[in-house]
Design a protein that fits this description.
It is a single chain. With about 120 residues, the protein is mainly beta. The strands form two sheets. Strands 2, 4, 5, 6, 9, 10 and 11 form a seven-stranded mixed sheet that branches. A four-stranded antiparallel sheet has the order 1-3-8-7, with no helix packed on it. The radius of gyration is 13 Å and the shape is globular. The chain starts with a strand and ends with a strand.
Length: about 120
């Protein structure tokens, strides 16, 4: 049974940091690109960052470059999103996605991040 579970969200003041975790099971983690998405209030979903299966390729949306870092530990089937210098506009529900193409696409339930000004 596939499981994708996010954790680490919460309420933080602007300028603070949070580390999101995405724990997975039920599939071959290293074969999947891992992505973090977010959806803010009354906004469209957007992909925040992505990391290749081996971890050697990473991309970020422009507004988080230099502040967020995506990583993964294939030994424990977990992906992370380190978020520093958080801003109120980062407030959103953050989702983890495991993607290997076609039907091989799994989502978690999300973890809420709220940044106060």
């Amino acid at each position: 049974q596939v499981q994708v579970v996010e954790s680490g969200g919460g309420l933080v003041q602007a300028g603070g940091s949070l580390r999101l975790s995405c724990s997975t099971s039920g599939f071959t983690f290293a074969n999947y690109e891992m992505r973090w998405f977010r959806q803010g209030p009354e906004k469209e979903p957007e992909m925040v960052a992505r990391i290749s299966g081996g971890g050697n390729s990473k991309t970020y949306m422009e507004s988080v470059k230099g502040r967020f870092t995506i990583s993964r530990d294939n030994a424990i089937d977990t992906a992370y999103l380190q978020m520093n210098n958080l801003k109120p506009e980062d407030t959103a529900l953050y989702y983890c996605n495991a993607h290997a193409g076609g039907q091989y696409d799994y989502w978690g339930q999300g973890t809420q991040v709220t940044v106060s000004s």
